[in-house]
Amino acid sequence: MKYTQLGRTGLKVSRLVLGTMNFGPQTDEADSHAIMDAALEKGINFFDTANVYGWGDNKGRTESIIGNWFAKGGDRRDKVVLATKVYGNMAAEADAWPNHDKLSALNIRRAVDASLKRLQTDHIDVYQFHHIDRSTPFEEIWQAIDVLVQQGKILYAGSSNFPGYKIAQANETAARRGGTIGLVSEQCLYNLAERRAEMEVIPAAREYGLGVIPWSPLQGGLLGGVIKKEVQGGRRAGGRTADTLADPAARARIQSYEDLLEKHGVEPGEAALAWLLTRPGVTGPIVGPRTAEQLQSAVRASELELSDDLLASLDEIFPGPGPSPEAFAW
Q1: Which of 41, 152, 235, 252 is 20 to 30 A away from residue 219, measured at CA?
Q2: pLDDT value at position 235?
Q3: Cβ neighbour number for residue 251 with a 10 Å cutoff
Q4: pTM, rounded to two decimals
Q5: Among the options 3, 53, 165, 208, which is catalytic?
Q6: Residue 53 annotated as catalytic
Q7: Largest Cα–Cα distance of the chain, in whole Å?
């Protein structure tokens, strides 16, 4: 496994990030523990979760599964760079009450203590804002983060789903205040089929020294050989993937993508991950395996070298928008 620095920090993380969103809803605790053990064996040291994972009445379940895994010992916690998130409302719907969500200083304090308890650890390495909070000024957010850093409860702060201007606003505010070093990572939607982050989010992240952590690297399975699986009698696409394939032009594009990779002898899902690892500013994509086999496929992708010819062909099928303002102006 290859490693890189997380943005401008001295923190070394693997070039694959283990996403845990499936732990609980789709993967039971025993299998989740086995996947995390296998990830460590493969050298993956960067684990990503969120306080709301588990969803619905089971919010927090994923963090609890990870905490139970840490409790097994064997230096599991020491080997992991642990990232979780804050923003979503953790109260049961029947118990909804003001200040149980978003990024007020009150909710950040409440949420981090609850996450630490579920995760059975004394600190979180990268504490991420899951979404922008239009109602809370960054002065208040950074004041809360400064306290947590001083208390030793978190080490770094990151963002998720932030537009470029909010990355700039957050870090300029941090610089004016002093204290915290500001955001060190941005977790954004980015893959071959969804490249809008290249316009402003990724340039802002690179300008301010944030590591980029793409989520949904296969665009919900769209880039994982979905048409081939249908033809071979596998599981048919559903949800947004099915809606996309219902458009003849979009289906033709995905078919061209799969045909190209078959010609080069490369699995589609592995190519999509490998492509992200070639992109400037990308620390590593988040992979969310439901099985050990899916984890092994992701590891193979991290070792895959894509030829210049193949990269050029992928750009022809999925052209990016280019940086702003050239993407929408002269």
Answers
A1: 41
A2: 67
A3: 14
A4: 0.96
A5: 53
A6: yes
A7: 58
